[in-house]
Amino acid sequence: MLLEEIRDLIARHARPDMGTPIDGVMVARHDVSSWEPSMSGSVMALIVQGLKRLALGDRVYEYGPGQYLVSSLDMPVTGQFIDASPEQPALGFGLALHPATIAELLLQSTSSALREARGPTPSGMLVSEAPRQLLDAVARLLRLLDSPRDIPVLAPLIKREIHWWLIVGPQGAAVRQLGLADSNLNHIARAVHWIREHHARAFRVEDVAEISGMSPSAFYRNFQSVTAMSPIQFQKQIRLQQARLMLASGREDISGVGYSVGYESAAQFSREYRRQFGAAPSQDAVQLRGLGLVSLSLV
Known about the structure:
CATH topology of the largest domain: Jelly Rolls
Order of helices and strands: HEEEEEEEEHEHHHHHHHHHH
Strand content: 15-25%
GO molecular function: DNA-binding transcription factor activity; sequence-specific DNA binding
Distance between the termini: 24 Å
Largest sheet: 5 strands, antiparallel
Protein name: AraC family transcriptional regulator
Low-confidence stretches: none
Number of strands: 9
Keywords: DNA-binding, Transcription, Transcription regulation
Pfam families: AraC_N, HTH_18
Organism: Paradevosia tibetensis
């Protein structure tokens, strides 16, 4: 069975940093269940063992063996593997999505419908059952980990194939918009990138709408549709996650961390940090340094 083969391959090749010799391919093993914040990245994530729960804004996604999630943009999420243990670890596969590859495949397609950005702006995250063709391609890609000689030649071909099955699969509408330069999703992607790069700066929504190439009303509506957050809420999530990374890396000056990510008040920073992570910045920093910050970049 394909899912069992994929599970065995991941179990053998998973390492702490989730990396593999194949560019853009991640395999993950998680032995504990804990809520951790991260940035999702633009990725397809397939669960082969265990159950994953993911929160994006006010939306909660849950997916298990044989299901996959597509994250269209790099968004602040909080995730938890349910009931993961050393005896029954959660196992997953991830592939970074490349808009240029999607655009090229759309151009090669003979279907004009695939090259059009029709319909409403999709959510930035969606969950589906993985079709057999997709599982087959993932299995063949992971088999290359046992055959390093073949990776440079065959891995790019199989990654393109996986992109294709995503394009024509249940989440095809969202994936195709990644490759269409004038799609609403790509307009929002520009805004997401700008906010991430300038998270410490105050901004007017109207100015970010202009950067995205949309009217303020259309921008606000589409931004919430994609991210499940307002632009200001999105900025706050980025600020708090950046602050947590700084504290985990050893920064001792709590007030300085808050100011560096854009907070003008130490009290406000501490209050919002506690609300987000369940502990004051100083307490959380001690815990993070003792346990090590868990990365869940494979959503």
